[in-house]
Write a structure and sequence with these properties.
This protein has about 425 residues and is mainly beta. It has two helices and 32 strands. A hairpin with a 2-residue loop joins strand 28 and strand 29.
Length: about 425
């Protein structure tokens, strides 16, 4: 019997998977675990625990038995306390908290409710980033500060309208972050152990944008891909040396969604100016435009105009949620729109969204009405398999009139056959394990 239990535990560990950063390991928005349910229970998901938190857009990260969450507690008109929390993954028990003061003056009013960037976990360290540019490296066991930076003080960063939002990424011994600072410090690589600057790259010409950098293998080498309001660039992640650049127009600094790579294809998509598809060179670090949208209207769109929702490239097709809540399918090679549907978001509303995570031959989508959906996406259309209530939408940030009265704009974590989600009041862990 003991051997059977050990074997069962080993199998679970073999197929278990953490969610250590924005959009999961590698930032690809792909969940690879087995043993996951096919449909939601009629009575809803079994919630393992709920823990009170304060406000914030930042999604949770899960690593090595811990859940990491950021929030903000206001104590004056614009001032308050940003906080990082580590919770026990199984019980929700608070293991430690780390707080620091933050002044949200200058942030667009209704969005000044908390941190945006998902924590980045790397071994014994977790890197957390506040909405006004406080970057802290914390010990995952104790919450002690290993090192810290302040983008405004250290780099003269002019914090953009909607705050600092791009989660930093780890590459080798480097932590690479969108800093948006003066003196060629749009992007900065820090020694991940000490915080010492390793390199800086690119000038901030207008606004730094909000899109986080990603790492990609293409052209025979590792590349750091970053999209800012004027262009898509590729850098050598070890040195910061520019490898290539391609123009990519945006308005109001709205480079928000994460660049998406699938093989030779690299997609960026903006609210006003639509999508651009680049083709990466197979033999050397280079890229060429494959297609680009022509519309600069948020309403009269001609392809996919994403904002909060990062699209996905699945085979020869692109799936993403457009400016007014339409889930759309495009031909990845031409940009031609094949179909659209409002079934995911449920309403035609500005910035209506949902986060798409691929799991095997289907997608888990949490929409901003607090629902979780299992669906199949194909060139033939949208096929919904199951839908359930996940969490209460609580944010009223700039949404205007919505059927639910509020939205939930926090990306959940999928880890160890569970989903971890948060709003401005609580963080919860619910089972997605097959019975």
């Amino acid at each position: 019997m003991r051997l059977l239990l050990v074997y069962a535990a080993a199998l679970f560990l073999l197929h278990a998977e953490d969610w250590p950063e924005w959009r999961g390991a590698g930032r690809g928005g792909v969940w690879k675990e087995s043993g996951v349910l096919d449909r939601f229970p009629a009575g809803g998901l079994k919630v393992r625990w709920r823990v009170p938190v304060s406000s914030g857009f930042s999604g949770p990260a899960v690593s090595d038995g811990r859940v990491f969450v950021l929030d903000f507690r206001r104590n004056q008109a614009t001032r308050g306390i940003e906080r990082a929390m580590a919770l026990d993954e199984q019980t929700g028990k608070t293991l430690w908290t780390r707080e620091w003061e933050a002044d949200y003056i200058g942030l667009q009013g209704s969005y000044a409710i908390g941190p945006r960037a998902t924590p980045t976990v790397d071994g014994g360290r977790v890197y957390v980033l506040g909405a006004k540019g406080a970057l802290l490296c914390l010990d995952v066991r104790t919450g002690d500060v290993v090192w810290k930076k302040d983008f405004v003080t250290d780099y003269k960063t002019d914090v953009p309208t909607w705050g600092i939002a791009a989660a930093p990424v780890v590459d080798g011994n480097r932590l690479i972050s969108l800093v948006g600072g003066e003196g060629g410090a749009l992007l900065v690589a820090f020694d991940k152990h000490t915080g010492k600057e390793v390199w800086r790259a690119l000038d901030v010409r207008a606004e730094p944008g909000y899109s986080p950098p990603i790492l990609a293998e293409a052209g025979g080498r590792r590349q750091l891909i970053h999209w800012h309001p004027e262009e898509v660039v590729s850098l050598d992640p070890a040195s910061g040396k520019l490898l290539w650049r391609q123009p990519s127009r945006t308005r109001m600094g709205l480079a928000v969604a994460t660049p998406v790579q699938n093989g030779p294809l690299l997609l960026v998509s903006s609210f006003y100016t639509g999508s651009t598809m680049l083709e990466l060179d197979a033999a050397r670090p280079a890229a060429r435009p494959l297609w680009s949208g022509n519309s600069e209207s948020e309403i009269q769109t001609d392809g996919l105009h994403a904002l909060i929702t990062t699209p996905v490239i699945d085979g020869d097709h692109v799936y993403g949620i457009c400016s007014y809540g339409h889930l759309r399918c495009l031909n990845a090679r031409t940009g031609e729109r094949l179909w659209e549907s409002l079934d995911v978001t449920g309403e035609r509303a500005r910035w209506a969204c949902g986060f798409l995570v691929r799991h095997q031959d289907r997608y888990f989508i949490n929409n901003d009405r607090g629902e979780l959906i299992i669906a199949r996406l194909s060139p033939k259309g949208y096929e919904e398999i199951s839908r359930t209530r996940l969490i209460e939408p609580t944010s009223t940030a700039g949404i205007g009139r919505r059927a639910a009265g509020a939205v939930n704009w926090s990306h959940p974590a999928y880890a160890n056959r569970h989903i971890v989600a948060r709003n401005d009041r609580e963080v919860l862990r619910a089972s997605l394990e097959a019975q």
